[in-house]
């Protein structure tokens, strides 16, 4: 660290830093430097880098050598630029000290203002401004801020003293002026002096040292406080919640004070260069006359609109409008500004890219392109996953305000975003019944199983006590874009009593609850929701995205409805059609599959399968029709057979009766199906190895459907996918059987249908031996759900219990994100890359895609692009996310190719600590798709949220 | 195939083939060629290669082009050498036709003798030999053998005709000679002629064609029959049972006939050049005067001993003794010979390496070294895994003969070899109780769990209905060398009724059963067992093995007893000490661990752990003492916590009462521990991430024990192993915690103890990221059980249901062996190799071993040697197997290094089909460790089998 520059000065229209140095100077520091550089009115100051903060913690809370000297030199510089001296009794330099990390981070230290004041200089200020009251008030504020914020004295103790004073004053004044309440501003100079005295006494009592009179001591106390606040619990929590990993630390900004509270030609405000809710190109913000920033936050007075500001102070407003123009042109994006007007002169205090609603994100991006400020690539790059989620899913109407907070019950894992409200019920049957009656239902289960699918579909939202983001409930709900919260471990469900409890609170069947799937929050009662609305800018922007991306986006869909819906959302084929879901669709289907399972010989099995054949054939016909002209990858039956059979005695007895087999036999057969680890059990293509007749039936159904539709002029491209393969010989056996059956069906139908036979690569062994497997496969589809489970040895249904610790940066920091949601690029990704490389080494034209849950995750989609896949496949609702991510990946690839040759950005040296994490966490620089952006702004439409059918 | 030589001639002291060409000529053909070459008296003939058989099947049972011509040319050559002509009416050449694959394979076609006889040539022979009866008898036999063996006529139909004839003759003679029964030899010429007539009529009736008179037609009919018998069901079954994969086909041997049935100076015999039971260097065999080989098999007459043969025909015997000497010197191994003496002249008909008992295998190998016939390396190479198993485990006393067969009940999976007999019981508690009473017990369970360990230990044998070779039952039993059969799916266990049934047979608690773990066979009743006895040659040979091997052999041991025992068996340290087994050892232990699990906060957990600390410390002290001077790798707790808690209400209530927590709380907590896929759940180091206090307790116990023993002068080398690691950060966190705790204990004890902290590599991710993980590990131990499960996505507890299909060459041929028993070198092996390479790339001195079940499997141990591991670790009883395999691996490596430069063996070209399979199945040439060798010869000791304590 010896030679590294630790402090960056700005002022007098020059700055050592600039706007690109957010990581090193923090967002605030970089913004101030950049604004200074481009000639905007910014008070002078300097920024201590985030690296210093990192070093500070690395060295056990010790400052790096040379820092003191560098700060001292910058103070000198600041004194020269301002012409004032810190602690000067006549014309003292006063400064503010603020924290500022590379990303906005509430929970860190608030500002300390008026630093430099002491018993002497307060008089200097008084004389210089000719306003003793102003000087005393500033000093009073400084002692309080320093005492509480920097030194940790309970703020309430200061407030208490002020309160007491005001009471005294009130009592005194009541007699004279009959004023009922005394405002801060009503306190006079004398009283303020008394208050200052009592503040200092409080300080001495608490800290065991007198309030520091040395500005230098004040400054270092404040710097230490800023660094200390980086590790304050609420800051840690915020980073955790927002998944802000790899951020090194906070910078410290020391800036010359300007005053918005110098009378009616002074004031302070915050504004957005465009409307952050709608995205419209209108100036948007608040202004508070005669006030300091602190007062805006305190909410004591109501700010005025910018239009009123214009009327009130057209000259200052004009300055602000100029700044708005300059900044938008400079940053080419909507900005969020903080400013102060001191006696008619505008000073910019902060400038950062403004947060915006999802709808605004699309509108602003498209408008900026139309205004020729940015290109299409930039516009597409700026849209986040959460923006798409935000315009697709209903949300809780934020206008309900504190009612939302008070209705909060418990938090689970945010499996599928959006919101839902309805009556609680505990069984799938009940959910279907209530839904038929027209009631909105929330299905609450310990966990869901394929048997529950009907009820899950009928429900508006799903809440489970166990499971992670890729548990059965989450995966199924995601496919429907249905609000879902899982792994809500605090839930104690009592099926017998038809109720659940959280602590002492009990919720019974029929009670209303509301789910916010984006936050994973469960609320008591029926909260108002706002329905999603697609802005026109969405269509424009997604068209651009589609033009930019280089890989295809398919969908995971099991029904003609889902297929059509996904196609509308931009899907270019089906990447995964799970045939087993079809079996649960009706009583006769599930009965036939159960009969097949209970059969103890191939003939009985074939008899049962014969019943399923026409049903599956019809299903596939609908899917082929919906996907006319596009590829349809159909996976043969995958789950272990025990998932299809009834596990209770009543169900088994009913089955025995219907099938005409003794109950004991049924029971024994079902018992034998039990597996210790079903995920690693008798499933996938292992079923076809044991019972080839199942494969034969399914292939017959697929190809019969394909031939029939082809005869009707539908362009069919069936791709038969064999799951859970571990070996080339295994696949070869099944591939041959598949082709034999398929060719026979084609010959019988006398119609030309081309088809592919490929495999899911979802076991580590398949990826490792991909060169051999590719020899007998037309295509690979990486099943990264299972591949993740096996590579990590981690069951997604069970990981809820411990995975939180793994993604908790402050506890372990092992994973940056849930590996079932965002692909573990380091581990699983290595296997995927190996599989692709080996597969193509055997068959260079091998078609390769992904069909795990990761196909709908932005970072994972980007990985797939980089890895050279031909397509990703996502659940219908994630198709737009995948399209966007694919476009962004293409843009990034282009940029990376370009950057290699380009020169280094000045000062953009990556700090050491960030580098280390960046290797593991490729997107560390960018906060992960922020959920808050989507959650903060409700969409404007008023239609009640409805579940997609 | 056009240019390939298909037929190899031998005769007149020269041969086109030789003894090295077993694969191409079959064992018999190669033996005949070699014996001819070295000047032994062998009748002339030729061999059609196994390649022809392979081609025959490849071409849909058509002979390759040119074969007919090549055979004809060889017949010509044979006629020239013998001076006789096939079908010659005066002096016809007669031949035998026999099958002969590269490995002995019962179930294939028997010999066809006397080929060349027809209605005309039979008279020629009669005249030439002056023995019409002999000629007719030969013709009669030929028609029967050809008709039944080659043409598939039911042999019994021939026997019936012969029987009828003998009855007639008997009735006729009874009147004259009062002889009661008529033997074959009593039938006279006239009667034989009538029999021949009736045989030919039968043939015509069955085949719809007259019996072929053309010797050429006879020859091709016989050749086709030999090839056909290769795919006969019993031959296929034999290959399946013996795991003879990759054998291409059978050869056909056509050899001039010689006759042992030409009077009292003729005869036939089989012999071993040394005693195959004891290995003693004595000539051992049987001789039958005036008989053909067929008669020996038929068992009609009792053969005489070789010593009597010497007395009877010293000249012929002298010839045989000379041959014995020549062959042993030539082959440098004990040989199994077949010979015929025709009128005083010896002819050798077969010569192959003799099968021998396990004890004999050791003795012969050591003796041959002492006799300077072979070197130590060769001696070590010849010992098979089954030889070691055979001398270590008790076996069923084969002298009980057919009683064994009739007691047979059902077959399961042969998990642990050896035999056991005892009373059936169904619970671990009952097993312990009965064992305390001194009763021998067989524990029969659907499956076992850690709770059953006490009962399993008390039982003499274990039988389960589910699970594979690495299921809980198998793994635990193997560690104790205790007979165990698993996955016996036909078992219907009814715990309530305390009985199990197999079909209609019911076995109740208290009934005796006997298990043969080597075969996986279950017998009803109490069969007599013979105890194992270590021959002195074992010690000598294993000493040589130890001198030869280059890697260490450790053991998996959890108790001081096991540790000491394994050390006696040659273990050089502990490679895996599973700490969790200790928890089940007594009531207070399991209670303390349950209390720890039920605890809902760290303090309560710590309290419970404090109870376990002194217990675990004591355990480790014993282990360190037993392993004085050797490394001890101790794995921290690994299984999911729910394995430790009671799952029944009664148990939970008892626990609630003892711990003083409400039953509902206990129940809920246990319910929450339930996992869908426990193998991929909250276990291994994930427990330590969630509950660091468990790790702290265990490390404290390990290091306290180490320090205490060190103070007493014991040389301790603790190696702390962290299981189920997936990430370097994860390991690093736990490694730091481990070192902090360990160093504190060392400091407190004031004694110098060096220790290592390493990890198990048992997830694919750990292997893939081994370069990063190695940076924070002192050693790697590959946990190939779990690694196999995850790489293949296959639960070892559930795989029983479908894995049989995967290892069935004739159904799928996907795996050559159960991948849980013998390492899947192609897939899992690739990960292991990657892990080693990456690990050492970071840390070249990284100590690497294996501690899965594979450490006791010969082929897997060899793989580990090749892969560059420092040691393997096996359960105590498998330590000798591992030592031997390690030595053989070293020998093979040396040979491979040498072979590279050496010249090709003449004619040893590997046929194409074998090559193809050899690539996947590295040991295809050698039949897998044959179970039969061990099973066939009971050890001689008479002590009843006892279970090791």
What keyword list fits this structure?
homodimer, 949 residues, alpha/beta, 8-stranded mixed beta sheet, 8-stranded parallel barrel, 47% helix, elongated, disordered C terminus
What is the straight-line distance between the termini of chain A?
A: 61 Å
Please report which band the strand proportion of chain A falls in: under 5%, 5-15%, 15-25%, 25-35%, 35-45% or over 45%: 15-25%
Q: What fraction, in percent, of the residue positions of chain A are helical?
A: 40-55%
Described by its quaternary structure, the protein is homodimer
Give the neighbour order of strands across the main sheet of chain A.
Answer: 15-25-24-17-18-19-20-16
> Biggest β-sheet of chain A: count, sense, barrel?
8 strands, mixed
Largest interface: A-B, 54 and 55 residues
Question: Which ranges of chain A are low-confidence, i.e. pLDDT below 50, for 5 or more consecutive residues?
Answer: 906-949
Structural shape of chain A: elongated
Put simply, the count of helices of chain A is 37
Radius of gyration of chain A: 33 Å
User: In terms of structural class, how would the helical and strand content of chain A be classed?
Assistant: alpha/beta
* DSSP summary, beta strand count of chain A: 34
Give the overall average pLDDT of chain A.
Answer: 88
Please, could you describe this protein's structure?
- Chain A has 949 residues and is of the alpha/beta class.
- The first copy, chain A, is built from 37 helices and 34 strands.
- In chain A, the strands form seven sheets. Chain A has an eight-stranded mixed β-sheet with strand order 15-25-24-17-18-19-20-16.
- In chain A, helix 21 links the parallel strand 27 (552-556) and strand 28.
- In chain A, helix 4 (121-129) packs across helix 5 (132-150) and helix 13 (358-370) packs antiparallel against helix 14.
- Mean pLDDT of chain A is 88; it is low at 906-949.
- Chains A and B meet through helix 26, helix 28, helix 29, helix 31 and helix 32 of A and helix 26, helix 28, helix 29, helix 31 and helix 32 of B.
């Amino acid at each position: 660290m010896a030679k590294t520059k630790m402090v960056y000065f700005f002022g007098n229209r020059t700055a050592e830093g600039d706007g690109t140095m957010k990581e090193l100077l923090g967002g605030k520091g970089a913004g101030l430097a950049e604004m200074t550089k481009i000639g905007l009115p910014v008070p002078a100051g300097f920024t201590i880098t985030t690296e210093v903060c990192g070093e500070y913690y690395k060295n056990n809370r010790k400052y790096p050598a040379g820092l003191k000297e560098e700060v001292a030199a910058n103070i000198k510089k600041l004194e020269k630029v301002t012409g004032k001296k810190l602690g000067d009794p006549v014309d003292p330099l006063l400064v503010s000290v603020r924290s500022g990390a590379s990303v906005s981070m509430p929970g860190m230290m608030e500002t300390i203002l008026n630093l430099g004041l002491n018993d002497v200089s307060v008089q200097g200020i008084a004389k210089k401004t000719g306003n003793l009251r102003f000087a005393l008030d500033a000093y009073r504020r400084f002692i309080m801020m320093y005492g509480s914020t920097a030194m940790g004295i309970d703020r309430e103790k200061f407030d208490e003293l002020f309160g007491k004073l005001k009471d005294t004053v009130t009592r005194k004044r009541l007699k004279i002026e009959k004023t009922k309440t005394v405002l801060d501003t009503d306190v006079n100079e004398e009283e303020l002096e008394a208050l200052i005295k009592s503040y200092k006494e409080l300080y001495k009592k608490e800290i065991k040292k007198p309030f520091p009179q040395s500005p230098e001591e004040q400054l270092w106390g404040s710097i230490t406080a800023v660094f200390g606040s980086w590790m304050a619990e609420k800051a840690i929590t915020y980073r955790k919640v927002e998944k802000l990993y790899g951020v090194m630390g906070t910078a410290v900004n020391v800036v010359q004070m300007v005053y918005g509270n110098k009378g009616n030609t002074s004031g302070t405000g915050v504004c957005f260069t465009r409307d952050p809710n709608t995205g419209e190109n209108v100036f948007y913000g608040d202004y508070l006359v005669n006030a300091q920033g602190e007062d805006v936050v305190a909410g004591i007075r109501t700010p005025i609109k910018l239009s009123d500001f214009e009327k009130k102070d057209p000259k200052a407003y004009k300055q602000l409008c100029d700044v708005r123009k300059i900044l938008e042109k400079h940053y080419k994006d909507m900005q969020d500004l903080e400013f102060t007007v001191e006696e008619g002169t505008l000073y910019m205090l902060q400038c950062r890219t403004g947060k915006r609603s999802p709808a605004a994100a699309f509108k602003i991006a498209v408008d900026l392109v139309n205004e020729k400020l940015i290109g299409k690539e930039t516009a597409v790059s700026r849209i986040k996953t959460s923006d798409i989620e935000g315009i697709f899913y209903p949300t809780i109407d934020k206008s309900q305000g504190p009612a939302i907070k008070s209705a909060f019950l418990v938090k689970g894992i945010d499996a599928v975003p959006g919101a839902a409200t309805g009556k609680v019920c505990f069984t799938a049957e009940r959910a279907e019944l209530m839904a038929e009656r027209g009631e909105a239902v929330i299905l609450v289960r310990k966990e869901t199983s394929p048997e529950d699918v009907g009820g899950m579909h009928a429900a508006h939202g799903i809440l489970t006590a166990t499971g992670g983001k890729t548990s059965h409930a989450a995966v199924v709900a995601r496919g429907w874009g249905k609000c879902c919260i899982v792994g809500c471990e605090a839930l104690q469900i009592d099926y017998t009593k038809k109720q659940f409890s959280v602590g002492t609170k009990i919720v019974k069947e029929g009670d209303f609850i509301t789910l916010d799937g984006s936050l994973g929050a469960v609320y008591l009662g029926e909260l108002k929701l706002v329905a999603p609305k697609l802005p026109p800018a969405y269509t424009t922007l997604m068209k651009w995205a589609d033009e930019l991306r280089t890989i295809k986006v398919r969908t995971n869909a099991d029904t003609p409805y889902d297929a059509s819906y996904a196609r509308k959302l931009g899907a270019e084929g089906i990447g995964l059609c799970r045939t087993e879901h079809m079996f649960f669709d009706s009583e006769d289907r599930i009965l036939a599959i159960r009969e097949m399972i209970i059969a103890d010989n191939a003939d009985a099995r074939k008899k049962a399968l014969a019943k399923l054949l026409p049903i599956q054939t019809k299903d596939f016909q609908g899917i082929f029709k919906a996907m006319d002209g596009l590829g349809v990858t159909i996976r043969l039956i995958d789950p272990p057979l025990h998932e299809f059979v009834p596990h209770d005695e009543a169900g088994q007895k009913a089955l025995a009766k219907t099938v005409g087999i003794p109950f004991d036999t049924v029971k024994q057969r079902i018992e034998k199906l039990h597996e210790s680890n079903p995920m690693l059990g008798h499933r996938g293509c292992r079923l076809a190895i044991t019972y080839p007749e199942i494969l034969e039936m399914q292939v017959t159904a697929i190809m019969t459907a394909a031939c029939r539709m082809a005869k009707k002029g539908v362009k069919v491209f069936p791709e038969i996918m064999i799951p859970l393969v571990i070996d080339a010989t295994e696949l070869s056996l099944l591939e041959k059987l598949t082709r034999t059956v398929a060719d026979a069906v084609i010959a019988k139908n006398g119609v030309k249908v081309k088809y592919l036979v490929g495999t899911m690569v979802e076991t580590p062994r398949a990826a490792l031996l991909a060169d051999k497997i590719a020899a007998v496969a037309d295509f690979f589809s990486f099943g990264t759900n299972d591949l993740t489970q096996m590579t990590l040895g981690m069951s997604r249904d069970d990981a809820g219990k411990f995975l939180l610790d793994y993604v908790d940066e402050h506890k372990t920091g092992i994973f940056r994100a849930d590996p079932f949601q965002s692909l573990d690029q380091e581990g699983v990704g290595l296997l995927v890359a190996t599989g692709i490389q080996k597969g193509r080494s055997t068959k260079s034209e091998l078609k390769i895609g992904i069909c795990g849950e990761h196909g709908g995750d932005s970072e994972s989609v980007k990985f797939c692009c980089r890895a050279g896949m031909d397509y990703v496949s996502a659940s219908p609702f994630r198709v737009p996310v995948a399209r966007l991510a694919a476009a962004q990946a293409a843009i990034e690839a282009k940029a990376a190719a370009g950057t290699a040759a380009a020169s280094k950005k000045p000062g953009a040296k990556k700090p050491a600590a960030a580098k280390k994490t960046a290797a593991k966490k490729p997107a560390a620089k960018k906060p992960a798709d922020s959920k808050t952006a989507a959650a903060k702004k409700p969409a404007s439409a008023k239609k009640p949220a409805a579940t997609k059918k």
